[in-house]
Amino acid sequence: MENIKGVIKGVIFDYGGTIDSHGDHWSEIIWQGYQEAGISVTKEQFRTCYVFAERELARVRHILPHHNFYDLLLIKMRIELGNLVDTGVLPADFDTESAATNVAQYCYNSARRSVEDARPTLEYIHERLPMVLVSNFYGNVESVLADFDLRRYFADIIESAVVGVRKPDPKIFMLGVEALGLCPQQVLVVGDSLRKDIIPAETIGCRVAWLKGKGWTAEEDAQQHPSIIKNLAELQNALF
Q: C-alpha angle with apex 138: 26 to 23, nearest 5 degrees?
């Protein structure tokens, strides 16, 4: 990543995939949870139910503002596993509730570890520059941040379900820039998705840092960019 010392006056962070999973797509973490729980499905079957659950959560308001991340995961796992039972991939007598609890707990613990790994960098930047969170989320990101003791780092939260704009629409990043009171050229956007974070942020003139982990597709994994970072700690040397 290029040296941007003295250029950046504020930072926009993505949340899901960036702060809570070391840059890996969340499907990969959940898939690991399935394996740990001994759920006998193929990766393709899992990916199908993952997409089903994402669409269901977008269609129906299952996630409420007070739900923390464990609550969210448990709801999502119930939908995924229920779909696998309904489609005959898992047997009708499969213990959905027990499996959902096990996977949700695994994923929640994974997220907490990632958050704690990110915390020193968030603390370091927070002490020196204003930060705003810009996230595609379900309307409960404030509860998630409070549970992980992250809310205090961010001057403002721009959440898709609240503002009515979703990534990759660059307008959501402009809302973040405006919340910082800066021009785009003074803002660094940190995210895990080339398509949803990096490219739209660049279109409005922001500097970017792509935390590149395991993506959703092989094509995504093969893509390159001059502003790739492998971990959030790299931001400290780039910024200061």
A: 25
